[in-house]
Structures are given as C-alpha cells and as structure tokens.
Design goal:
Structural class: mainly beta
CATH class: Mainly Beta
CATH superfamily: monomeric porin ompg
Largest sheet: 12 strands, antiparallel, barrel
Oligomer: single chain
CATH architecture: Beta Barrel
Order of helices and strands: EEEEEEEEEEEEE
Shape: globular
C-alpha cells in the first residue's frame, strides 16, 4: 500500500511474477488409479488460493509510481513449502524475501536508496481442502528488516488470517481473504499498526492453462478512527512447461479511494 502522499498518483502499479511449482515433495497418484481430476486442480499452481497449497518458488517485481517523480521498485523471492496430508497437502510454510530500490523525488533533500525490505513469514493450515467450500487459517509475521520508510513499514507485527473459497464449477471460484495486522514494535515516529484487510476475489480458469484473477481490497485502520482505503487488482497468468510447472503473470493495482479523499 502506498503512503498517503503517493496514493493519488499510484495509478500505474504493475507487478510481473514468475512461479515455478516443485512437484517432488508432494506424492503423486499412480496412473492406474484412474482418478478424476478435481475442480480445484483446474487452475495453474499459484499462491492465489490459500486453500489449495503447492510447493513453489516465485519471483516477482513490483513497481509503484509516487508523487513528484519518486518511485519504489521491489523484487521479491517467495518460497512456499506444502506438506501434511499425502493426498492433498494441508499445511504450508512460506517466506518472502524482498529487495527494495527507492528512486528519490525531485524534492530537495530526498535521496535514493536500495536494500533489504521487510521479510515476511507465514504458516497456514487448510481446515477443509476439497469440495465446493474450502477454508483455511494461518498467521503471518513481518520483521522490521527494512528499517522503516521507504524500504519497509517500520513495524514488527503479527497477523492472524482466515480464508474461504467457494468453487461452484470447474473453472470459476470466489474467494475471500481476511487479515488482521497488529504491530508489536514500531520504529520511532511510526504509529502503531492495527488494521483489518478484507480481499474478496474472483478467479477464473481460461483454456490452455491460463487464468484471470480480480480482487478488491478494503483496508480499515482501527488506530486512525476507522480510516479506510480501497484498491482494485487485476491479474492474468499463463502456465507452461511439460507439466505446467512454470507460471508467468502480470498484475495491475489501482487505488480507488481513501477516507481522507475529497
């Protein structure tokens, strides 16, 4: 989420990512079992649906345009390991390792910088992993390795998470992701963080191992008298390779409104 000064001009936030699904840790069914593919298997191996877990490595590049010529470019390596149930993994451990490059604005005294951003780690458990309705719970911790703005948020926080997915057909599903952020330690001059993020989304599988993903994120800041902001996200992706183990995707995020907007 961009800062208050940059929200009005962050209209060109574009994220490219490439993911590689690793099949070895997950036992595969034998061909002679003659099983029918399940609806949740129709989509490429991505981390978009928290109720369908995969072991994968993903590399993403996110660019955010700020006011007065400033910009923030973040390259993130995401590692995800799925384990647990041999038939369909129901546990996942993940870590995000970001490297941030900040391009200074044209304001006097503004300086460009680069370095490690805030490392995030997550653990999740799928309570119901198959069928029309699926749901999962988890937790996330963000470490203040970025040292505050502009590389990071300047907080050490914990976040409980709950997620739902409703898939009425082979190629369509509706999903919702709810996360509560509570800061435990903050940098000097950084306010305490206490936020609720709600992310309803639609995921549609296209022919030839492609997909379209649309998400609407609403954020409420409970420490700032319920201030809120809204963001629309649109992503398209395509899986390729002999087993569909590679996925290339592009995402655009458009800030819609803030409670402080005129």
């Amino acid at each position: 989420m961009a800062g208050h000064t940059g929200m009005a001009t962050m209209m060109g936030c574009l994220l490219f990512s490439m993911a590689y699904a690793i099949d070895l840790p997950v036992p595969q069914k034998k061909a002679d079992e003659n099983s029918v593919a399940k609806p949740e298997d129709a989509f490429p191996d991505t981390a978009l649906d928290p109720t369908v877990l995969h072991t994968l490595a993903a590399l993403s590049n996110e660019f955010k345009d700020r006011e007065f010529g400033a910009a923030k470019d973040t390259v993130t390596l995401n590692l995800s390991y799925a384990f647990g149930n041999a038939h369909r993994p129901d546990w996942s451990a993940q870590v995000d390792l970001p490297v941030v490059r900040y391009l200074a604005s044209n304001h006097p005294g503004s300086q460009s910088s680069s370095g490690l951003g805030d490392i995030e780690a997550r653990i999740g458990h799928v309570m119901r992993s198959e069928g029309l309705f699926r749901w999962a719970i988890g937790g996330e911790v963000e470490f203040d390795t970025g040292g505050g703005k502009p590389a990071g948020d300047g907080v050490f926080r914990l976040s409980p998470i709950i997620a739902f997915a409703l898939q009425p057909s082979h190629n369509f599903k509706f999903q919702t992701f709810v996360q509560f952020n509570q800061s435990l330690v903050t940098e000097t001059s950084v306010p305490e963080e206490q936020e609720i993020h709600v992310k309803p989304a639609i995921n549609y599988a296209l022919p030839a191992n492609s997909y379209v993903y649309m998400e609407y994120e609403e954020e409420w800041n409970l420490k700032a008298a319920g201030d809120f902001s809204s963001t629309a996200k649109f992503e398209v992706g395509h899986a390729f390779g002999a087993r569909g183990e590679w996925t290339l995707s592009a995402r655009c995020e458009i800030p819609l409104t803030k409670s402080s907007d005129d």
